[in-house]
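Dear Dr. H.,

I hope your travels went smoothly. While you were away I took the liberty of generating a structure for the chain from your last submission, since the lab meeting agenda had it listed for discussion. I wanted you to have the full record in hand beforehand rather than looking at slides cold. The sequence, exactly as received, is reproduced here:
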Amino acid sequence: MKLFRYIKAFKDVALKKEVMSTPPIHMQLEPTSICNLSCLSCSYKEKVKNPHNLSFSQFKGIYDPIKPFKLTLSGVGETFLNPEIFEMIRYAKDNGSNVNTSSNGTTVDKIVEKIVESGLDLLKISIDSDNRETYEKVRNADLFDRVISGVEDIARLKKERSQKTPYLRFQFVIQNSNYKEIAGVVRLAHNKGVDAVNFQILELGGVEERREDLIGGMTLDSLRNSLNEGRVVAEELGVRSNLKQTIRKLPEYWEKYTKRRGCPRLCILPWFSTYVDIDGNMRPCCSFGLTFTEVNMGNILTDGIEGSWNSERYRQFRKSIKDGTVPFLICKTCIPQTPRDIIEMAKILPGFLGRGD
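The corresponding predicted structure, in token form, is as follows:
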């Protein structure tokens, strides 16, 4: 049954059909829109006016019609601020989903045992620095030591129990204040028992007015040098990362910054993946989480799976992507992942596609 659904999904992707023959095999679902930080690179304070949690009953109402093979429980808020998050993880695991989540790590020190026992496959911790000073600049909070303490405790408890999951991965968003610490965060991951580091080029959507503060001090050469330094350290220490891929695609990323345009290649996400917000609204991907929130393909709680995943608006969106006439600015400035990118990331980063090796 699972193999049959995979085949149908891959066929939909290959044929670029407007009407999907199977629900999305990957879903990113927002469990909360409550956040306890105010990061310089985020427009949360300006965009989120009614922060609240997804209830467990609402979660089931969204999850059950889709039952994705891979579930990403994260969105604009801090995942572990939802008191029912562990029920959601367990329910999805019991129904056969590979489950991952992202966290700013500020509360994990209080719930270490729950995390390790939850069945969670992958835990992504946003760190963005290898020291307290830079962390405070990026996050507007002096919580670096607490985050690292929680990570250490999770790694220690996993080791004590001879347990591989949840795989731990640092998320590092590259910006002006931290790009010289790329090698440092690789060393930090190695020292703290973290399995991998994923480096991301900062998206300026929603915070364009802070462009100078966020990326103004970087040059193409200085960023490339820092990425290469990190790559060498990662190879020496045996830390998994996407640094080679980031270096290879750096010219595309830089053109996005300097010319404010993305890559013309076709995005394949609308054919197998979707993003569902706290209220059940279905959107093309996580880039629509805080920006372009008016883009709504349907509401799975009120319209059902056919009225959202195969809604007229979603069908037209797929057609526009296929025809190269994308209607949204955020798509026009995007650098979409290719099948090669996805396969490479699955090989490199633990848990990227449900892999744990």
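Two observations you may find useful: DSSP finds 16 helices and nine strands in the chain. The chain has a mean pLDDT of 91.

With kind regards,
E. W.
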